[in-house]
């Protein structure tokens, strides 16, 4: 872990949460079969004998899957894609930075700033509409 921000809680879509809850229950059953008992801190994805899966094995399996699907992305690339998509969709930089576990927003901006939409035109169109509305209201009050 690079910084204390690396250990954090993140939100997941309800579908993913439901899947993880079901999977964790199956893992708990497997622990009981091995006589290990319940452990709330146990890993969610384990080997057949309830040990931690080696990160390189997960990466290797992921690469096999994406090659089979004809997709060109690394496991870590999913992180970059997710962060880039959030910024491209206009989510607040502070929220995305916290989700990424960056120590500062400036790190997120340095790495992903090019992904943020240049929304000056939209911003000024909205400002212009609000300004025109305000002018109309002043005209109506003075007439």
In short:
The protein has 143 residues and is mainly α.
Describe the structure.
The chain is elongated, with a radius of gyration of 24 Å. It has helices at 14-33, 55-69, 75-88, 93-100, 105-112, 120-142. The protein has 143 residues and is mainly α. It has 6 helices and no strands.
- Helices and strands: which structural class? mainly alpha
How are helices and strands ordered from N to C?
HHHHHH
The average pLDDT score comes to 86
The profile of the biggest β sheet is: none
Task: Quickly list its features.
143 residues; mainly alpha; 6 helices; 0% strand; elongated
What are the SSEs and their pairings?
Elements: H1 14-33, H2 55-69, H3 75-88, H4 93-100, H5 105-112, H6 120-142
Helix pairs in contact: 3-4, 4-5
